[in-house]
Amino acid sequence: MIKKFTLIVLLLYGFSANAQSAYTPTADNLAARENFQDMKFGLFIHWGIYSILGDGEWVMHNEKIPYDSYKRLADFFNPQAFDAKEWVAFAKRAGMKYITITARHHDGFSMFGTKFSSYNIVDATPYHRDPLMELAQECQKQGIELHFYYSLLDWGRPDYAFGSPIVNGKPTQGDWDNYIKFMKDQLTELITKYPAVKGIWFDGYWERTDVNWHLDEIYGLIHKLNPSILIGNNHHEAVKDGEDFQMFEKDLPGNNSTGFSAKSKIGALPLETCETINYSWGFNINDRNYKSTKQIINYLVNAAGRNANFLLNIGPMPNGKIQPEFADTLAIVGNWMQKNGETIYGTRGNFIAAQPWGVVTYKNKTLYAHVLNMPKQPYLFLPEVKGKITKVTLFADGSNVKFKQQPEGVFIYTDSLKPDAVDTIIQLTIN
Question: Tens of pLDDT along 349-366?
Fold first, then answer.
């Protein structure tokens, strides 16, 4: 029965364009994908020694700081105010169900205790603690899923040889085989040492699109160590064999406003879109371009309507505290989710394509029309609704809403509705 079920799911999910390999997700992996889609809202955290400079996570590269000089930041990275319990509680108050945090970013500094590089927070800083272990343990206690971001790109390691030409799938300088082994060793630590890790979020593939990343080996290792772990890769391309979800950077699936998603053909895997709460990913002391609660909720709703999760990023301060501006904003988002989460959590999207007025999420025999832009005409039109609509109500108070169902779709009359300033949610029941 399990083999038959797995075969059916593989046919539904499809293979990647060049799929000749034999990755078959296990039943536990398929269940993890379903749960991932149910969660809908996650917290992304970019935090590292770059936070000290207060100029984002790319400061080493952008300011052309020599690697040997940059490494000295570790000598005074001492985030005594870090509190894993506080961070997890922050995510829960916002209505988030999972956390994805940078275990190693492009600067090569490991934010966890690792045997395979002394350039890590336990050995190279006066802090001498492992915040990711503390976070993993606290996530397990509070019922929040934990995923690790891991950079394939490394600006400083000699074996990576950043900037080296690529010939026959390898950099001409450095020691590519050793670098691949190093990553496998660290990923093994992250998956086997840290409790209840549910996902690996790769980044940096795009820096070397002509190199052999050995993804078949890396993905195979991860799934061997823990078959249920979900693998995603921010490569900005169509999904590759061995991946379990597809991500979109600073864009809703199907959009390409940032230029990252030109090759990101939407596949059949679970979807996730990530965006920042201001402009920067890492802590930036000058970045005050904070998104409003309405912008964040609208992004979350638009993602859900397109069948995607929303991973919202913050960059904590170097002392380990989360900016109060972020806490205040996300507390309001959390209050909204407490009242309206039923229309987001556990739903699926793309039942009806996104409309000029908003999107539709659905669960079982219930549709939720999220009206983000009230139309000028006194009605909404939901095209090609299959099944008989028996009842239409305003989600906020349960009051009846006039409607008419025609072969071409459903007309919902809005002339008597009082629009909500953030999201007017209309509930439709299908017989």
Answer: 999 999 999 999 999 999
